[in-house]
Design brief:
The chain is mainly beta. The protein contains two helices and 28 strands. The chain has a six-stranded antiparallel β-barrel with strand order 21-22-24-27-26-25. A hairpin with a 5-residue loop joins strand 9 and strand 10 (109-120). The chain is globular, with a radius of gyration of 27 Å.
Length: 365
Amino acid sequence: MRTHKIGNTTVEYPDEIAFCFNPIVINILGHPWAWVEAVVRDVITGIEHIEKRVLFQNTCFFDVSFYTQSYFDSIQFGEIDYTQSGAVETPLGRLFSLDLNMYSESGELGESFQFETFVVWGAMKIGERYNGDRVLIWFKNFPFTVDMYAAGESSVNITVDNEPLPAVGLSKRNVYNLFLTGIDAQREVILDLSGAGAIGSVFDMTFDYTFHAVEGASSNIRLLIDDSTCGIYLRWINRHGFYCYWLFKAGDEKKQVTNDGEFIRNNMQDYSYVNGYHSGTGRKQRKTEENTLPICAPLVDSDTYDFLFQLAISPVVDMYMGKDADKKDRWQGVNIAVETFNKTRAVLQDFVATIVLPETRVQSL
């Protein structure tokens, strides 16, 4: 956290980057103000929320994470045009401006303090590094992007099979989707966001929800090529606000049909079986069908297992359904079944999960 002093008032406030599902805490302490007003403003839309707190023993605090989460509610996570090239901003990062207004007992404004923080969709675990080096698999025969955070205007250097390509420019601070359209690689692609400059794009999280910029650290992403054409291809958003992709092997689909609604008896006036009805028979009002599909990524290492495990905890998971008549990519939203995942100490192990497909209303009376 950052610290600012105004006379004998100390303000502890979030770093230049924060995550909307982590606490975003503001502490005001040291002066007997009557109350403090916090104004949370989305810089893009100008929409703001206001909250007031009374001090207790010259101290009060705010957690504004709830307000920042609300600005991500309207995001259409699946609206990605994979025919694009270069770098395109994603909606998974937003700049917020916060005002702290401190009032005396008479109701007069005593002091005011304003700051900005860039909030990313997601939540960091203690000790994690954000936007650091990664090794990913590029499934060339399916839609694919690489996500990267840039702290300011910069460029990404691209190397394809040891041959450099023109760099891709990033115009401002944001989370970007990098498209690989037009790149023909046989072995690997390396994307490198230089760590040069005064503003860091790589952050380490400490134990007090502080994010320290790692000076001079570059964000290096190595893409290994996979030419597979068959399997279950999934897309999800991980805890760092990045889109992730993987091609899984499919197991045997399980179809479960259940009864729903009221039990409706047949015609009570007919006690014979002549027309197929009898007072002792009846039907359930509705049937539903739920399909599940087990998937597997065989023999992955520890880092890849952790990468794939975030599929199970992501609220946004899509399954690739091919292209429509207009050659546009089609995706279907799915869920991942809640279960226990056992990560062993073996060097390689299978990652197994179960897709819960959307429920089907079969018939209704």
